[in-house]
Task: inverse folding
């Protein structure tokens, strides 16, 4: 009896100590058994003969998109790349395990893996924190799933003619590097919702991203045909940022430059200082707006706006030059008439008519009182016979000329100061009208072009 109790305790201890260890080592045992006779240099469909390529089904899940840089024409994308394929050599019994997961890189490297690379990648790397962000999963029927997390800086050939109302189309371009279509063929995942997806919380500060497009393609090289996958991403730039940072300040600068039209022509320091200050401010704003943009050979929408605003500010300075020159110009033939010169120009009649003393005589637009009376000068006022109270009279040669000449006729020719003032008045209406017409044409044209390019 004592012996049976000892045997029973012995086996209980064996189960408690060794069975959990064997269970913990079981996945490793299954993987080791699968690796017996396994050749990682042979692709899964190698035994099936030529014309039977291994088909890889790809999923791309975007975690973040950042640094969309028009200057270097690239963008940074952080994504998960998941690949599915079937490998008959990796089958095992369901009794052994439901699924086999490999998290250690040394185990994953023992498997045959597809070789897709990103064609338009400038640089890329796998994430290694806190462990290499890669794992493989094998099901009993031989289906292999390989997942990895990458960050890549991808080139994007941008067209900036409509900048900052442009829409850029960039790509994530995957292709098999060494396996031709006879060995390997890339496909998007059979579930379209999983083939390409983007995290729900992704927000781009300056861009709106419509639904991306997926494509399957085959590229031809001298080495043969190679399967490829494309994702076309559209980045529609939001103009609101540039409205606040670029368009509104320049609009206000142009408007401020028109204040000089309301200043006096003699206010030389004020008008010159205002014109030069606004022109220098425009130059600074142009330099700031062009920072981060590449040097291109064509004209951008922003260039048209900035160039026109600079032209209006500069034209304000030129307008003052014209006004200042006009105000100082001597107009030939324009001089104030003197009574003496007008008296000599009037014919004097020999006929004489006497007017009673202290009588007011009305000429054209003037009343002249007579000076003769008791104790006054003995000289008589002589008028040419005519009509009284509205009639025209002329003095004779014996009358005091300055006392009896009518007011000289008003000249219809403007003085230099009046001409300069009129130029300013015209500019107050002309400049805002032209700038308003330019705004209408500019925004109508470029907004229509932007909508057409974005496909909305």
Result:
């Amino acid at each position: 009896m004592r012996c049976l109790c000892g045997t029973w305790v012995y086996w209980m201890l064996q189960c408690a100590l060794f069975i959990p260890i064997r269970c913990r080592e079981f996945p490793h045992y299954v993987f080791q058994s699968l690796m017996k006779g396994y050749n990682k240099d042979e692709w899964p469909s190698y035994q099936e003969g030529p014309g039977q390529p291994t088909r890889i089904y790809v999923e791309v899940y975007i975690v973040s998109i950042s640094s969309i840089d028009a200057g270097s024409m690239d963008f940074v994308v952080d994504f998960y790349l998941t690949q599915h394929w079937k490998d008959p050599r990796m089958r095992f019994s369901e009794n052994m395990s439901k699924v086999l997961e490999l998290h250690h890189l040394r185990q994953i490297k023992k498997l045959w893996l597809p070789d897709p690379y990103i064609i338009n990648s400038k640089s890329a790397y796998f994430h290694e924190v806190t462990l290499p962000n890669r794992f493989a999963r094998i099901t009993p029927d031989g289906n292999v799933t390989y997942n990895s997390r990458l960050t890549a800086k991808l080139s994007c050939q941008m067209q900036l003619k409509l900048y900052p109302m442009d829409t850029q189309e960039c790509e994530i371009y995957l292709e098999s590097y060494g396996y031709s279509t006879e060995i390997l063929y890339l496909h998007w995942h059979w579930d379209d919702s999983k083939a390409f997806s983007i995290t729900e919380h992704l927000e781009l500060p300056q861009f709106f991203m419509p639904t991306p497009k997926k494509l399957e393609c085959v590229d031809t090289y001298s080495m043969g045909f190679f399967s490829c996958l494309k994702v076309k991403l559209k980045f529609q730039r939001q103009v609101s940022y540039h409205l606040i940072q670029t368009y509104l300040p320049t609009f206000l600068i142009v408007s401020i430059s028109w204040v000089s039209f309301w200043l006096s022509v003699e206010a030389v320091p004020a008008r010159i200082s205002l014109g030069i200050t606004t022109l220098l401010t425009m130059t600074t704003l142009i330099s700031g707006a062009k920072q981060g943009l590449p040097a291109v050979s064509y004209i951008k929408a922003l260039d048209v706006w900035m160039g026109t605003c600079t032209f209006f500010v500069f034209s304000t300075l030129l307008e003052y030059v014209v006004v200042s020159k006009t105000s100082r110009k001597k107009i030939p033939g324009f001089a104030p008439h003197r009574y003496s010169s007008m008296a000599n120009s009037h014919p004097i009649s020999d006929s004489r008519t006497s007017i009673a003393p202290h009588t007011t005589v009305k000429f054209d637009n003037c009343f002249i009182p007579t000076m003769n009376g008791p104790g006054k000068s003995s000289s008589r006022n002589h008028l040419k016979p005519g009509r009284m109270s509205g009639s025209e009279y002329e003095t004779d040669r014996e009358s005091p000329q300055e006392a009896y000449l009518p007011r000289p006729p008003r000249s219809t020719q403007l003085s230099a100061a009046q001409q300069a003032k009129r130029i300013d008045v015209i500019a107050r209406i002309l400049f805002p009208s032209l700038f308003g017409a330019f705004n209408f044409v500019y925004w109508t044209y470029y907004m229509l072009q932007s909508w057409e390019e974005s496909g909305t």
